[in-house]
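Protocol step 4 of 6: structure prediction from sequence.
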Amino acid sequence: MSPGYHRCRRYAYFVSLFLLIAPVGAGGVSAQEIGGALTLDDVLSLTRRHNPAYRRALTRVRSSGAEVRAGIGAFLPSLSGSVNFNGNSQTTFSGTDDFGRPVDLTDGRTFNSSSTSQSLSSSITLFDGFQNINNLRASRFREDAAQLGADFELTRVRAEVTRRFYDAIRTQRAVAVEEELLASAQEQLDATQRLFRVGSASQVDVLGARVDVSRQELAVERAKGDARQSLLQLRQQMGMDDGDFSVAGDFPESFDPSSLDVNALVTRALRSNASVAQARADESASRSSLSAARGLRLPTISARASFSRNANLQGYDAFFDLGPRNRSWGFGVSVEVPIFSRFGTSRQIAQADANHLSAQESLRESVQSTDQQVRSALIDLENAHQGLLLENRSLELSREQLSLAQEQYRLGALGFQQLQQVVDRASQAERQALTAEYQFAAAVATLEERLGGRVFE
């Protein structure tokens, strides 16, 4: 991958890190301000800041950045320093005379001494079979993979939150639909009571109309419960701990997906889908790790240099002496040739080779899976579009049929049971048309998740 690509990935990393640690209120809706109606943009902004899965993915990006810094540090010389101060006191009550004969000392003799030493040493690897170069490449690819993994997680979370948002829109509109049906049922009850008073309807019809009102009141309450449940599920997916809010917006405008070129969509997905890009980065990292493992068979050349100062004095004068006069320095070059590692090198190479083959298969699997998912998502979108057209057409006909049936019922030309059948079909058509709108919106969100971007760029 090119240096420009790495710069872009690092830029994306710092942007993501900023979003992770930035105050929630910066540039979007804050947690303290989520009361009221939230648009889809508001919901996605809060999700990016609070969703636990995405935040976990960002922590992996941070750790991979430390691995890259460690890889760069392998090219730099190591440097270490030490400072030592030592003191010693010895008292003896025995010794030897001038002829070497042991004698006892009545008062004893005390000897005090001290020493100091300071050293500075450095070493650098001149050649290691290109292990450091390949390890650095592998760490950079792993950093790319971690960032792409975070991008993929964000794409997945955004798609799921979008579907949850549209489900909240559906349930919110379902409450309005059920309330309209309740109002219609109440009007129907009033009309039936009027017909009963003039003898055109029976008591059974009046009771049936009242049952319909009660049943529709229950449907309204169930719809309100579903709306609250959908908001709870949306809040959980966003990663918010608390906060009461509603949603504001509508389903996206429908379009005919038959004009989309499936092969072009697949090509786009293979280029922009984060899961495929992550698999490519993992494969590149495993290839570099394999090259680093093979470098274990080559000799290692290193250089070293050192400088030291020391002093040994009677008494404690050397203690805390920072300028001893005795000095020494040295340097050297060493060559280490691996001859026999008890098959440890062969084991590491075999493991790296197996990891590379596994990464290649994972990449191939990711490409195949993305191809299939895009094609499947487009089929689902086409089916959802056809279903939406049919349900909207059915809704128009049901509304027209209901209007005619209600007029005939007021005139006494249609019985209550026949009217009720028409009302039931119209109510079902209202609900199915709303569901079809949601299914189309959800299908669009799923296709965009597979593409890794908008359907229309």
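Step 5 (inspection) to follow. The longest strand covers residues 102-127.
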